[in-house]
Amino acid sequence: MSAVPELRDELASDAGAIHALTIDAFRDAAHRSGTEPFIVDALRRDGALSVSLVAVRDGVIVGHAAASPVRIAGRDIGWHGLGPVSVAPRCQREGIGRRLVGAVLSRLRAQGAAGCVVLGDPAYYGHFGFHVSPSLRLPGVPGEYFQALPFGDAVPEGDVAYAPAFDTTA
User: Please, what sign has the CA dihedral across residues 137, 140, 144, 147?
Assistant: First the structure.
């Protein structure tokens, strides 16, 4: 078994490696849009990364996870969106993604975030406490794949809008 990767904040010098990793990680994913690496680049360029963590093994970035602010019902109320989350294909199923997601959520809580949303596999993200919340909607996507994790008791109501970077196509 390979060494457990170190998790750390992204550095400016990591941008190219994160871009390449994201391409590689999403290459064969059934749910990919092909825009994932460009979304990360645009979030970085726009200063919209609330958290951006990398997993590094033997000096090589093998994982990355990002979070950025979202608006709910047109307002910024301290919620964030998780993603994209990328793990090198040769390193998948080693728990790297799970460690990255857990670390991002811990960091968001420490920053005082009110909650987090994610668009993804309910079986996977349910392990972290994400669940479908009928009061939150992401227009245009099946509701069972859009999940919320409040960091307190309150779950807001309304349509969720991710950062403009998520509209990036190249």
Answer: negative
pTM of the model as a whole: 0.94
> Is the CB of residue 105 less than 8 Å from the CB of residue 147?
no
SS3 114: coil
What is the percent of the chain where pLDDT is above 70? 98
CB neighbours of residue 38 within 10 Å = 18
Q: Quick check: 115 and 151 in contact, CB under 8 A?
A: yes
pLDDT of residue 34: 80
Q: Token digits for 148? A: 């919320």
Give me the residue spans of the domains in the chain. 6-167
**CATH number assigned to the domain covering 6-167:** 3.40.630.30
Helix (H) or strand (E) segment spanning residue 99: helix 96-110
The CA distance from 93 to 54, in Å, is 17
CB neighbours (10 Å) of residue 67?
Answer: 27
